[in-house]
Design a protein that fits this description.
Length: 227
Amino acid sequence: MPAAHHRPAAVDRRVRLQGEPVDSCPSLLPEAERGSVLRITEAGEEILHRPCRPAQAEFGTPELSRLIDDMFRTMYVAEGAGLAANQVDVDLRLFVYDCLDDDGVRHVGHILNPVLDEAGPVGRRLIEDDEGCLSVPGAVADVPRTDRAVARGFDREGRPLVIEGTGYFARCLQHETDHLNGGLYLDRLSKRDRREALRQRDERREAVLARRAARSAELDAATGRTP
């Protein structure tokens, strides 16, 4: 999911890491400094259109930590607020995120095997707002989502997590969980709006991919890597 185009004018510097408040967090996470950029899958590829398998034996493994590192670097290069494992061609219920909510609070972390609490009638509103997807490069459409979301799952070591979000971060939690269930935001659109989103993608895709390549080169230079 792309980062929000409309950031709050005065950004509150509070940060929640893995759902818990922390004093500070670097703009570029250590995970992203260690990771490598992976290819982002695109709408139409089979892995994006079926549910991902739950993590089981992966907890606590170096392979899982390496995947999370790679996903963070890939997400930053693509200017994303969230990225699911099947978007880098990995069949696993995992997503990473670095996303501001509407109050300017930065939410950073990862979650495995997430399940969203069912939206109840009290305290949640359905909001229609701009939404895009790193797997549909260049396209944006209005998508209705609830303004609050709670995701329950596990961290990389298998410890339970509860991640709560409001506003744009709630949208991010719902969008990424949709990915792991085999869905894209395109599936939530009318036929007309879907055609328009795909038209935007066809028109803008090459420019978006070129920008990602340039950002990857910039990040390599900033972190001391050579081609």
